[in-house]
Structures are given as structure tokens and as C-alpha cells.
Write the C-alpha cells for this entry.
Amino acid sequence: MPQITITIAEGRCPAQIRNMMREVHAAVLRTANTRPEYIRVVVHEVPRTHWATGDVTLTEMDAASPSRTGGSAGHQSDHDAAGRPVTTEGEEQP
């Protein structure tokens, strides 16, 4: 029974998380030669204050980059038509 665990920074809407789970499930089903009911997908959302890269939390990165937050106090990612986070060149969306 395949179990896939995804750790992702919080900030996506439930529909985005559900779509990601659906896509991962489909990929495992295509490639792992198993039955659909045996596939487990678990998503862990980590608060942005609890995720640091280079000793800078995602919340600190958000505050330092108005283009990522739209100038608001909370985190608000830009997303494409499919609900995927849009990043600028050289940027990575955790």
C-alpha cells in the first residue's frame, strides 16, 4: 500500500490541496501497479512561522516581499488558472 506524505507551507485554499491530492493519487495509480483504494495521500500544512529557509521564516520572507503578499499583512499567494502558486523567476513556492 503506497502512502505518500506531503509537507507544504500553509496558505493554499482547500480546493488547491484537494486538487494536489487528486493529482498525486492519479500519478501513483499510473505508476505503482496498485489498486486505487490502497493509495494513501496525507498532507501536512506547516504554519509559515514554523518554516525557515536560510534562517528566515516564510512569514519574514512574506513581509519583506510586498509582491508576494499583495501589500497586505497576511499571506496571499498569486495563483494561475489551475490554482497553482505563481512564482517569479528564481523564486520557489514552498
In short: The radius of gyration is 16 Å. The first helix runs from residue 14 to 31. The helical segments are 14-31, 58-64, 66-69. Strands lie at 3-9, 40-46, 52-53, 56-57.
